[in-house]
Backbone:
């Protein structure tokens, strides 16, 4: 067996097609999930920040708790929903990238909702009187607050992206780690390591680490830029 | 510069009829009856906690009277032709121009009219060179100027100002006072609270003096500064500590 690091290195340099395909699928699944979670979570989180209704505290606590939802549990729930005997079994989505997108959306959604609520609630405290004075209703305040909180919200969205790209449990359960179809970076690492094929695992590990590092750099520099430009 | 204020029906005088406001049983404003006629400059005075800010918020419609009534002469509950400037202006995290456009767009003004109004306002207040700057990065004085410009662009018949210069230095204060005087000259009714007796003398035509949530004196400025009837107001003007 050759040194896994040199195998990994040659894979990265040559852009091995199977290796690239795995990265491509991972990014497609995770980015789609982030997009879906944002479309639902940003307005919902802002609504939760501004609305007053019985059970609001419980709702907030539940979403906060769900931020720590174990990926395998999210995977299991989606598996039960999509399995042939489940309520959505007729859609035949199990073991497809779509199923993985659904599962990851469920993982990211609580993060987006909770962080949005917290950011928007803080801003609302500051803006409330002024916005009312300017003539904005509560409902109209939602897009205003989301836009004015854009920098802090970006951090939350990237945190969601980080969580989804790093998790293995949910995509493994609902995707099935089928080569060329539902194999992502994390599921591939799991499988390759257990088979002793360390080259691909190390290469994917390097890509994942680079991705995490890049993301954090982006968050940092976006924050710096915003402080200078937006105040 | 011609401003079409006649688009709106006159909303003044504003009348408060035995208005009160309480939080958790504590009466913060009590039994306030007051009429604010059009075209006057009313200064609201009183010690900290006397209820100056609350009175302005009650008039402006940010809080509702728990007892008594607030009556605009147009019969509306909250007319659009009014604006308020706060002690610390809350500017949106956007450019200066976008801050001016925001309330206009809220009122359903179309894009072209809004752009023209923003440009006119920028020019009127010497803010054109700052128009693409981020509002949050302006100095305190510039921020308050922008807040006043934003209020002006809303074409108010009445403008409420809650200690608008209390966190500004003298030169910025002077600019703000000049703006207020210019607004008043255009016929905008001014209702402003302040701690600064010199400032009150410079601006006031009428003075309302609050003490522990009650309006204990409401008089023309000359009469008030010559010698108010209420002993608390006399003590306040003499620089004694009234609370």
Residues:
């Amino acid at each position: 067996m050759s040194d896994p690091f040199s195998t990994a290195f040659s894979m990265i340099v040559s852009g091995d097609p199977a290796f690239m395909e795995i990265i491509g699928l991972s990014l497609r699944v995770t980015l789609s999930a982030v997009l879906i979670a944002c479309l639902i979570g940003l307005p919902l989180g802002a609504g939760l920040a501004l609305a007053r209704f019985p059970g609001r505290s419980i709702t907030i606590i539940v979403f906060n708790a769900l931020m720590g939802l174990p990926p395998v549990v999210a995977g299991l729930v989606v598996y039960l929903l999509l399995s042939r005997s489940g309520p959505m079994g007729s859609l035949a989505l199990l073991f497809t990238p779509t199923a993985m997108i659904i599962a990851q959306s469920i993982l990211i959604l609580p993060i987006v909702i909770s962080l949005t609520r917290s950011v928007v609630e803080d801003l609302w405290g500051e803006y409330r009187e002024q916005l009312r004075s300017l003539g904005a209703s509560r409902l109209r305040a939602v897009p205003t607050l989301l836009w004015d909180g854009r920098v802090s919200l970006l951090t939350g969205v990237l945190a969601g992206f980080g969580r989804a790209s790093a998790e293995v449990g949910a995509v493994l359960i609902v995707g099935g780690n089928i080569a060329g179809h539902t194999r992502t970076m994390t599921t591939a690492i799991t499988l390759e390591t257990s088979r002793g094929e360390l080259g691909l695992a190390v290469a994917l590990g390097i890509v994942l680490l680079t991705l995490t590092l890049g993301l954090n750099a982006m968050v940092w520099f976006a924050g710096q830029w915003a402080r200078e430009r937006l105040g | 510069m011609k401003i079409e204020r006649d688009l709106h029906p006159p909303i003044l005088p504003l009348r408060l009829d035995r208005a009160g406001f309480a939080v958790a049983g504590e009466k913060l404003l009590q039994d306030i009856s007051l009429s604010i006629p059009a075209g006057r400059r009313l200064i609201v005075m009183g010690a900290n906690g006397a209820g100056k800010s609350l009175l302005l918020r009650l008039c402006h419609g940010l809080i509702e009277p728990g007892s008594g009534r607030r009556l605009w002469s147009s019969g509306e509950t909250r007319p659009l032709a009014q604006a308020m400037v706060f002690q610390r202006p809350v500017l949106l995290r956007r450019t200066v121009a976008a801050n001016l456009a925001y309330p206009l767009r809220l009122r359903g003004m179309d894009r072209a009219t809004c752009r023209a109004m923003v440009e006119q306002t920028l020019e009127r207040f010497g803010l054109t060179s700052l128009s693409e700057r981020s509002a949050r990065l302006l100095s305190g004085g510039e921020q308050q100027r922008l807040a006043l410009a934003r209020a002006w662009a809303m074409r108010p018949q009445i403008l409420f100002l809650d200690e608008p210069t209390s966190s500004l230095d003298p030169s910025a204060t002077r600019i703000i006072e000049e703006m207020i005087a210019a607004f008043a000259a255009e016929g905008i009714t001014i209702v402003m609270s302040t701690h600064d007796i010199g400032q009150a003398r410079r601006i006031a035509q009428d003075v309302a003096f609050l003490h522990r949530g009650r309006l204990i004196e409401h008089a023309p400025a000359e009469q008030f500064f010559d010698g108010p009837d209420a002993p608390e107001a006399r003590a306040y003007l003499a620089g004694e500590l009234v609370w």
Residues 92-137 of chain B form one domain.
